[in-house]
Amino acid sequence: MRRRDFLLGSAAMAGVMGAASWGSARSTVQQLTIQTARFAFRERPTDGLVSLSPDAPPPVLYGTQGDPMHLRVVNGTEDYTAMHWHGLRIANAMDGVPYLTQMPIAGGESFEYDFTPPDAGTYWYHPHCMTMAQMAHGLTGVMVIREAEDPGFDSDQVINLRDFRLDGNGGFLPYYTARGAARSGTHGNVLTANWLQAPVYDHPAGGLVRLRVVNSDTTRIYKLHLRTGQARIIAWDGHPVEIDVPLPSVDEPLLIGPGQRVDFAVRMPASEGQTADLLAELPGQPTRTMAQLRSVGANQKRDLRDLKPLAANPVSRPDLSSAEMLDFVFGWTPEGGPPNDGYCGSLGYSFWSINRTPWAGDAAKGTGPLATLKRGKSYVLRLRNESPNLHPIHLHGLAFVPIRSNLRRLPPLVTDTMLLLKDEVAEIALVADNPGDWAFHCHVIEHQKTGLAGYIRVT
Ligand code: C2O
Ligand code: CU
Ligand code: CU
Predict the structure, then answer these.
(1) Does the pLDDT at position 15 exceed 60?
(2) Could you give phi then psi for residue 452, rounded to 5 degrees?
(3) Whose CA is nearest to atom 2 of ligand 1?
(4) How far does residue 417's CA lie from ligand 2's centre (Å)?
(5) Cβ distance 45 to 58 under 8 Å?
(6) What pLDDT sits at residue 334?
(7) Most buried by CB count within 10 Å: which residue of 66, 142, 307, 342?
(8) Residue whose CA lies nearest to ligand 1 atom number 3
(9) pTM, whole model, 2 decimals?
(10) What are phi and psi of 181, to 5 degrees?
(11) Cα(359)–Cα(250) distance, rounded to whole angstroms?
């Protein structure tokens, strides 16, 4: 594949307060307490954050492919909530979508999420009730599901990219605007990696690092590349990449929409103090350093070719010859009535729609599924963007493969989120192998919360 054809979508802190573990090794329950937090992004501390500890970002949660996880989410706030595990193909009842798969968790209540991740890779978690309010104030964290067999890296680095919208005193600016919600979303102004600005992480010189980059922002489509030639893309949206994907560059950065992830294998520079950098292109600004990996210690003399390919996850491959085609149109809403918000918050508007129907809110009664799929059958979903804005379209519970676009060649990479470009009509294929009602929405949260949402039923 020629480079120009290719446009993709175009520090562990477990054990800190709020993420306590107990119980026997076999069935450890990890308690996650949603609570208000305070943290200094710049000189002055910011109050009113939402995290899982009083003074730090939500921790990286670790699991192992095929091993049960027990996560007890305690709501230590006064708002309702529900936690979603983005990209994990687990039982519908554990998916964390209010009204669709569970009732919202009230303040002081808890919900136990028990599931077994079928796939290894880089995933993440975020609330799906009060979604915009809680995510914009910090509640987005990374999940690492380890391979049953160690793939042989010297170290691992998680980078959670997300922005905050702060004033000069460190206080929060309004976390959404009607103007933004009706266009590309309201962008933050403090860009962070793991809540830090351009953090530097030490890794063994000449060693092989697995760099897991997650875009957990509510709005921003990041344009990324690395400053080092010694790297390879090894996974996309959690799933191993089986084809040769060119490394992004300053001229052709990787587009990674809200909700998306990319894993790089990075060979650290040989001499101590040298860095490999994660860089972002921002409109009208010089290239921004998001994070740096710095070489320390003696040269490990590893080689990218030492790595064997990651084993594919057990995702069923769709049978295109028998697949039924279903159409979905993403655009403005013709109506624009006020949404019905239940307990999960509303932005007060309907701007967007799927198939010309705005999702009237999380608690919407009488809103049926956008489509009903038969369990075990293959489908092609034709996604048409009739708006000038980009939409990272995310489907819960099922993995899919992009197969065709009117604008570009799409690499056939297994994913859960398809970044739909302006005027794009893209086809994605899947096997409907996980029963339940699966949320299907734009991951620009202001779009999701103002109509660009719905669900697909698998029976
Ligand atoms: Cu990460 Cu319904 O979303
Ligand atoms: Cu999801
Ligand atoms: Cu959108």
Answers:
(1) no
(2) -85, 70
(3) 439
(4) 8
(5) no
(6) 75
(7) 142
(8) 86
(9) 0.94
(10) -60, -30
(11) 38
Distance 304 CA to ligand 2 centre (A): 32
Q: Three-state SS for 427?
A: strand
Identify whether the C-beta of residue 277 lies closer than 8 Å to the C-beta of residue 289: yes
Q: How far is the CA of 395 from the centre of ligand 2 (A)?
A: 6
> Do the Cβ atoms of 362 and 342 come closer than 8 Å?
yes
* pLDDT per residue as tens digits for the range 171-220: 999 999 999 999 999 999 999 999 999 999 999 999 999 999 999 999 99
Question: Token pair for residue 427?
Answer: 């086809």
Strands lying side by side in the sheet with 121-127: 61-64, 141-146, 121-127, 83-86
Q: How far is the CA of 443 from the centre of ligand 1 (A)?
A: 7
Nearest to residue 237, comparing CAs of 96, 57, 66, 418? 418
Beta bridge partners of 331: 353
Residues sharing a CB contact under 8 Å with residue 224, sequence separation 6 or more, in sequence order: 213, 248, 253, 254, 256, 262, 278, 279, 280, 281, 290
Question: Could you tell me how far CA 362 lies from the centroid of its own chain?
Answer: 20
Q: Which residues line ligand 1 (CB under 6 A)?
A: 84, 86, 126, 128, 259, 394, 396, 439, 441, 443
